[in-house]
Design brief:
heterodimer; A: alpha/beta; TIM Barrel; 2 domains; 8-stranded parallel β-sheet; two-stranded antiparallel ribbon; 12 helices; 12 strands; 41% helix; B: alpha/beta; Rossmann fold; Pyruvate-ferredoxin Oxidoreductase, domain 3; 8-stranded mixed β-sheet; 41 helices; 37 strands
Chain lengths: 335, 1193
């Protein structure tokens, strides 16, 4: 079975790509991903904000309490090297490239325009095959308009794209007034691919301590409905590669997303839940399904059920929402 | 001679640099003020810096100075070039080895930052009492008097020791020289190479012990030959002075700086000469110059080589015209015929037949006491008398034995072309760091010579710093503080009300103030006295709201860069643009490795400073402003008002000898009079939602949060703002409850808020205690505190210590210490005093707890309303356990004798009373109270008997009331230097309790690694992360089977801590409590530090357990694990603390490996403890060993 696909100009053996997650913080895991059949790997994200925070923390703790008391003018040994920066991340790119023969896609979450471009450049220099911009940002200022938010996204993409030569993908949130317009704008700004969608870590409340407890909830297969819709809508409308992420748990999820128009499907929660080796299981299942349904290749099926190519284009639009509910209501209330 | 190259550096670093270059093995133990030398050596070694011969010296940290000396002795014996750095008690611990090293004629240079030896009190400051205590060891003693001389004479010492085979002790004055930053000429490697001949090194190696050419050394000798053998080395000592002088001459050829064994400076026809060693030489040098300009005929003789004392050179160095000599010693040898240098000089002159000279001796400068030109002049003036005062003191007012010389304190030799600046700051605001940078900028960017010296506080929280900066066209020899300044910077507005910051400012100088007030309102907010001084002195007056600028720039409370920029912008030291550019360059250099954000933050601060700095016009008139009442209040005891208050106000130097106790004994309960008003924000009680759990009271490190329950009738006279609620718990039924904060003593750490378990139901960010700005509260809360303090405390015998909630109302007898804000140690000590304070004797090891526990001016140990309270003493760093055992054995003996006398008097004293006194168990507070009453009755009866035995028993009767002996110390003591003693005392079965405050690092001396430091933690001497796991002291101690052992962490389980303390006290034998004490050295947020304790326990990194031998005696397993199984990964705990994160930043691969190993260790240790708790055995030995017979319980 020909599972080949192309994403960001990279020729991939299959559409199965582990997405940015803590799993790729370990080189052993990266090797295991390749062994399990990953066609490319998106590394965990480099967070500029985290680096900045760490630097401030380090500065604070190294200076706190110093030069106050005659017996203890300092509390930390003088360190000749303090690598609170992207160095270790860049080293990981180098190590991942050395250890594998599949494309390594770095992931960057900047917080300043200068940071986006500077880190992107260093990531390219470290040997990444592509860069995914993880534009993870929750605007809370009521004075900030949607247009300004969108402008910031476009500026980031355009600046990064102007700085580096490797292809750039953008992982974006679904919370735009018009995702399609945003997707188009990002493609025009230079994005070669879009990763749909970023899942935000949602806050929770601990009822005993009354603390806000942000925690990571793994996705469920239901989450793939959102990328499914938008991938189907965007497929063949804008000239950009599409990666589906969120809720890709089973071979059937992969197949549905490919049918909708995804070039690659990205997996995270399922690997965290079942282990990296589960990647091989999904690949086998995809292959079996394709064989059973007499497909020749992934290329053949890719986008075959996009909004443009499916039998009922309106099914992806809002009007269908009401009908969907009434259908499901009838289904669950057969009386 | 090569081109001169200058650098700004302190003597510690300058000397250490030479020592590092010329040695291969460096064995260390931290001690102030020598620690920075060892730390520098360790940092260089860790960074791979090579020595003169191209190899990286091995640096090892030992468990004590005695250990370091032993290691050095061994290294020398096997042929390595070796050195160490020490001071004070550390040097004393090296003395046994020093005799050996000298007796074996071993080349070695020991570097000493000379410091006082603890006698009536400990002092970290400088004098020569330590080096003088080593003068009989056979070491040569060479003295460096200035920052420049420190590296110069270090090199000369190394050359001379190798050639002469006599070991050298090279010393300079602790702090005054060791910590002074000066502009000095650097020593080039080529100079070192020429000075140190390879032949000498070869000869040293050839003498090494080796099985290839075996010899034995260190024999035992008998009366037949020991004496002769001791004399056999004489010729080496005879040759030594000549060798030193030749080395000095060679050095002069290479550098142009000529030294002599005795350097005379002054008039060639001087009639009066002062002789001294150390930094005082510099002050004397400039005084002599000044006086000779005034046509006086005076001189100074600087002693370089004190041992071997070359009498001929000494006599020859004096000008032939001299008629009178004053020899000054910076030490005191009580009961001697004179101090050591004086006696040597007398002897030399006597032997030379110079009986025509008048010679007197005197003491000066003990414990870094100022030594000024005024004092030098006083000493020289004394020599004008036909019978000059001998055995005098100078610099103090001795109104008891009249030793002190009179002198005119206003006499000054400061020249107008020397710029002098004084800066008052807080430790936390970065003032000292900024001034260190400033003086470097001046020293390195101009032709000026420059000097910086810093005076620190003895408090750790809210510590004040005073920076003294001088620069001018000549080398700065002013080894004393600035009393007249061209520039004064006051970096904290609150200082204006507490200190006379404008006193040193010269008329028409420049004054810089950090203030929250703008140009229009500032004047009226200045204290009246400040206004008066400004009007009188008419300086240029500049101000800035530095805290606001810092806040805007994201710098928190650190105003260093801002005030530094102001200084350069207004002082005219450098052209403004040049200065700003130099500051920016210095910022890039200093902060570069911390990341561009940190650099940018500081650069922004520089720019914002320039737009916010403003000049203030000084009016002609004072505008009225309410006078601020200065603590201590008039209600304080006379000793506090007359003596301690002077120290608090910075006028301690003015106190006469008669004001001070003769034996170092001070009253307790004095910290309450300081009222330092440190905290910008303080906790405020929300009485409506408080559940009265007492957790905030328990954790408050400074005992500023107190609770009381009392009869509601007391509220009749309460201030209007005094808060009170009905007490919630059944045992307090009918009573009212108040949680009161002493806002003037609070340090604002916020730990109380963090631990409060209550949330406001309508606004969950609020708790039952919340931080609010202090200034708005201070007036009302001062009244409330006074009213609260007057409310009766629950009588101790009625208190319940059952749980944290119940015992919160027990009065702490440890309050308002000088510990760091948020200190992790002090809550344990406070708890100890709440539980047993009325019968407590504390033997305290030197360290943080002895500093915040006993550093003048005040002490936090206090008494209850009944007058009972802890008695406290500090012996040494290493011997606290033995010291405490001494307490116990002494008390037991006296109690035993009292019981014997009581038996003898049975019948004459009421028999029932005798019986009750002898059999009562006194296990709790009520039992102790009853015994006290019985003893009071006994005393009444004894007074009527009138026999010798009755009189003897009267003196000893109080020993019949139970006394608790607790030893307190840190991990540096318990795991390292004091471990042998601790082990012995615990093993002895003696009823001594030990509270080991485990910060896992030497906190007091600045974060050096101890054997308690956990695997992977970065600390000084473990900058690459500690490679060995923490010593399991609890497990080792449990193996004795007769010691109560508990491992506690208050932040994780406070009830467990309480229970452990109660059980330890109740156990009839030795007890050890190892208490997790978070520390500023961990690099943590101190406000939420109790959460770190919790995480340490949740991860299994810190286990909670109790081992109670009494259970073993009952056949039960004595070990009880009180921690839940680990539920978070160790890494989750490690990432909370900078001490671990730093390793990830510096050596990420090592960090991964060590952190993984840490997890494995924790898992294995948890399993081991589980097994022990189940099976009750440690290896082959049973944990359930019956309680041993106690020898002296």
């Amino acid at each position: 079975m020909n599972l080949k696909t192309e994403y960001l100009g990279l020729r991939l053996r299959t559409p199965l790509v582990p997405s940015a997650s803590p799993l790729s913080e370990s080189l052993d895991n990266i090797k295991r991903m390749e062994d399990a059949g990953a066609s490319a790997i998106v590394l965990h994200s480099l967070f500029e904000e985290h680096i900045t925070f760490e630097r401030h923390q380090l500065h604070h703790h190294v200076t706190h309490g110093t030069e106050s008391y005659a017996e203890a003018l300092t509390y930390c040994p003088e360190m000749s090297v303090l690598a609170v920066g992207p160095e270790s991340y860049l080293d990981e790119i180098v190590a991942a490239k050395d250890a594998t023969s599949i494309p390594i896609i770095a992931s960057l979450n900047g917080s300043t325009l200068g940071g986006w471009t500077d880190y992107a450049k260093r990531i390219e220099e470290a040997g990444a095959d592509a860069l995914e911009l993880n534009i993870y940002w929750i605007p809370t200022d009521p004075e900030l308009t949607g247009a300004e938010v969108e402008l910031r996204y476009k500026q980031i993409v355009s600046q990064v794209n102007g700085t580096i030569g490797i292809p750039v993908a953008v992982k974006l949130s679904p919370f735009f007034s018009n995702v399609a317009n945003m997707a188009k704008a990002l493609a025009e700004a230079g994005a070669r691919g879009l990763v749909l969608f970023n899942r935000f870590y949602q806050p929770d409340i601990d009822l005993e301590s009354l603390d806000i407890t942000p925690n990571i909830l793994l996705s469920t297969p239901m989450a793939m409905r959102l990328p499914l819709r938008w991938i189907a809508i965007l497929r063949d409308r804008i000239k950009v590669d599409l990666a589906a992420t969120s809720g890709v748990h089973r071979a059937t999820d992969v197949i549905k997303l490919l049918l909708a128009g995804a070039d690659v499907t990205m997996l995270c929660s399922v690997l965290l839940r079942h282990g990296i080796d589960h990647l091989a299981v999904i690949e086998r299942d995809v292959e079996e399904w394709l064989e059973k349904h007499e497909y020749e290749s992934v290329a053949q099926m890719k986008g075959s059920m996009s909004q443009k190519k499916c039998a009922d284009p309106t099914a992806f639009e809002r009007a269908q929402y009401i009908r969907g509910i009434s259908t499901s209501w009838r289904t669950s209330n057969p009386s | 001679m090569t081109t001169k190259k200058f650098e700004m550096i302190d003597a510690n670093e300058a000397a250490a640099r030479v020592a590092y270059q010329l040695n291969e093995v460096i064995a260390l133990f931290p001690i102030t003020p020598a620690s920075p030398m060892g730390e520098s050596a360790d940092a260089w070694s860790a960074a791979g810096v090579k020595n003169l011969w191209g190899t990286v010296p091995a640096v090892i940290e030992m468990q004590s100075e005695g250990g370091a000396a032993g290691a050095i002795h061994g290294a020398l014996q096997t042929g390595a070039l070796s050195t160490t750095f020490t001071a004070s008690q550390g040097l004393l611990l090296m003395i046994p080895n020093m005799y050996k090293i000298a007796g074996e004629l071993t080349p070695f240079v020991l570097h000493v930052a000379a410091r006082s030896i603890a006698a009536h009190a400990l002092s970290i400051f400088g004098d020569h009492s330590d080096v003088m205590a080593a003068r009989m060891t056979g070491f040569a003693l060479l003295s460096a008097a200035s920052v420049q001389e420190a590296p110069d004479l270090t090199l000369i010492a190394h050359a001379a020791t190798l050639e002469s085979r006599i070991p050298f002790l090279l010393f300079f004055d602790g702090f005054r020289t060791s910590h002074e930053i000066g502009k000095i000429e650097s020593l080039e490697p080529e100079t070192l190479r020429v000075m140190i001949k390879e032949d000498w090194v070869r000869e040293h190696r050839a003498r090494a012990l080796s099985p290839d050419h075996p010899v034995i050394r260190g024999t035992a000798q008998n009366p037949d030959v020991f004496f002769q053998a001791r004399e056999a080395g004489n010729r080496f000592y005879q040759a030594c002075p000549g060798i030193v002088q030749r080395a000095m001459d060679r050095f002069a050829e290479l550098t142009g700086r000529q030294y002599h064994l005795f350097d005379y400076h002054g008039a060639v026809d001087a009639e009066r000469v002062v002789v001294l060693m150390g930094s005082g030489c510099e002050a004397a040098h400039e005084t002599v110059d000044f006086l000779n300009e005034q046509q006086e005929k005076v001189g100074v003789l600087k002693v370089r080589l004190f041992r071997p004392f070359d009498s001929q050179s000494f006599v020859a160095a004096l000008p032939p015209t001299v008629k009178a000599i004053a020899v000054l010693d910076r030490t005191k040898e009580p009961g001697s015929a004179g101090e050591p240098l004086y006696l040597d000089c007398v002897s030399a002159l006597q032997e030379a037949g110079r009986t025509d000279l008048r010679i007197v001796g005197g003491r000066y400068g003990l414990s870094s006491k100022e030594f000024t030109p005024a004092m030098v002049k006083g000493v020289l003036d004394n020599l004008k008398n036909s019978s000059p005062k001998n055995h005098f003191t100078v610099g103090i007012h001795d109104d008891v034995t009249q030793t002190s010389l009179e002198y005119d304190a206003s006499f000054s030799v400061e020249k107008a072309d020397v710029f002098r600046a004084v800066f008052y700051g807080l430790g936390s605001d970065g003032t000292v760091g900024a001034n260190k940078e400033s003086i470097k900028i001046i020293g390195e960017n101009t032709d000026n010579y420059a000097q910086a010296y810093f005076v620190y506080d003895s408090k750790k929280a809210g510590a004040m710093t005073i920076s003294h900066l001088r620069f001018g066209p000549r080398p700065v020899r002013s080894t004393y503080l600035i009393s007249s300044a061209n520039f004064v910077g006051c970096h904290q507005p609150g200082f204006l009300e507490r200190y006379s910051v404008l006193d040193p400012l010269l008329p028409h100088g420049t004054f810089l103030l950090n203030t929250p007030f703008g140009p229009d309102e500032l004047w009226t907010h200045l204290p009246e006295t400040v206004q008066e001084q400004l009007i009188a002195k008419r300086p240029r007056f500049f101000a800035i709201d530095a805290h606001q600028v810092a806040h805007n720039a994201g710098m928190g409370g650190r105003i260093n860069t801002i005030m530094q920029t102001c200084f350069f912008a207004i002082s005219g030291v450098l052209p403004r643009e040049e200065a700003i550019s130099a500051i920016k360059e210095s910022i890039r250099k200093t902060y570069g490795k911390k990341g561009p954000e940190i650099v940018q933050m500081n650069l922004n601060a520089v720019d914002q400073t320039l737009t916010n700095l403003f000049e203030v016009a000084i009016p002609d008139q004072v505008s009225l402003r309410a006078k601020v009442e200065q603590p201590p209040s008039n209600t304080a005891p006379a000793f506090v008002r007359n003596v301690l208050a002077q120290m608090i106000a910075g006028r301690g130097d003015e106190l006469p000898v008669s004001a001070l106790p003769v034996d170092g004994t001070f009253p307790t309960s004095t910290s309450r009079w300081e009222k330092r008003n440190l905290a910008p924000d303080v906790p405020v009680w929300d009485s409506d939602i408080c559940i009265q759990c007492g957790k905030c009271v328990l954790v408050c490190p400074h005992a500023v949060i107190r609770s009381k329950v009392y009869e509601p009738s007391f509220l009749k006279s309460a201030p209007a703002s005094f808060k009170s609620r009905e007490a919630r718990f059944p045992e307090w039924k009918g009573l009212h409850y108040t949680l009161q904060v002493s806002v003037e003593d609070c340090t604002g750490c916020g730990i109380c808020v963090d631990v409060c378990p209550v949330r406001n139901k309508t606004e969950t960010r609020l708790k039952a205690i919340n931080m609010q700005p202090q200034p708005e509260l201070v007036e009302t809360e001062r009244q409330n505190w006074d009213f609260f303090s007057a409310l009766p405390d629950r009588e101790r015998q009625y208190l319940s210590f059952e749980n944290v909630r119940a015992m919160q109302v027990a009065q702490p007898l440890f309050e308002f210490s000088g510990a760091c804000a948020g200190c992790g140690e002090t809550p344990y000590i406070k708890l100890l005093t709440q539980l047993f304070g009325d019968r407590l004797l504390i033997a305290n090891a030197t360290g943080c707890s002895s500093i915040y526990g006993g550093n003048l001016p005040t002490t936090p140990y206090s008494t209850g309303i009944d007058g009972y309270g802890p008695a406290w003493s500090n012996s040494l760093f290493e011997d606290a356990a033995e010291f405490g055992m001494g307490f116990r054995v002494s008390l037991n003996k006296q109690r035993e004798f009292a019981a014997e006398l009581l038996q003898k008097l049975n019948g004459r004293v009421n028999e029932a009373l005798v019986q009750e006194i002898l059999v009562t168990d006194q296990k709790d507070a009520a039992g102790v109270f009853s015994q006290r009453e019985r003893v009071a009755e006994l005393k009444r009866q004894l007074l009527t008997i009138g026999t010798d035995d009755a009189r003897r028993l009267l003196l000893l009767a109080d020993t019949l009331v139970r006394k608790s002996v607790w030893v307190i110390g840190g991990d540096g003591w318990g795991y390292d230097i004091g471990y042998g003693g601790l082990d012995h005392v615990l093993a002895s079965g003696c009823n001594v309790k030990v509270l080991l405050l485990d910060t896992e690092v030497y906190s007091n001396t600045g974060g050096q690694c101890s054997k308690a430091t956990p695997l992977g933690a970065v600390a000084k001497f473990a900058s690459g992360g500690k490679r060995v796991a923490k010593k399991d002291l609890g497990l080792i101690t449990m193996s004795y089977g007769n010691v109560y052992v508990a491992c506690v962490a208050m932040g994780a389980k406070d009830e467990h801590t309480l229970k452990s303390f109660l059980e330890a006290e109740a156990y009839d034998g030795p007890a050890l409590i190892i208490a997790y004490s978070h520390c500023i050295a961990h690099g943590i947020n101190m406000t939420t530090a109790m959460q770190n304790q919790k995480a340490a326990v949740q991860s299994g990194q810190w286990l909670l357990y109790r081992y109670n031998p009494e259970l073993a005696a009952k056949g039960e397993n004595p070990l009880h694990i009180d921690s839940a199984p680990p539920k978070i990964p160790v890494a989750d705990y490690l990432k909370l603390e900078n001490r671990f994160r730093m390793l990830s930043n510096s050596k990420p691969e090592d960090a991964k490996h060590l952190f993984q190993q840490a997890q494995e260790n924790v898992t294995a240790r948890w399993q081991l403890y589980q097994r022990l708790a189940r099976n009750g055995s440690i290896g082959g030995a049973s944990l359930a060993t019956p309680v041993n017979e106690k020898v002296t319980k």
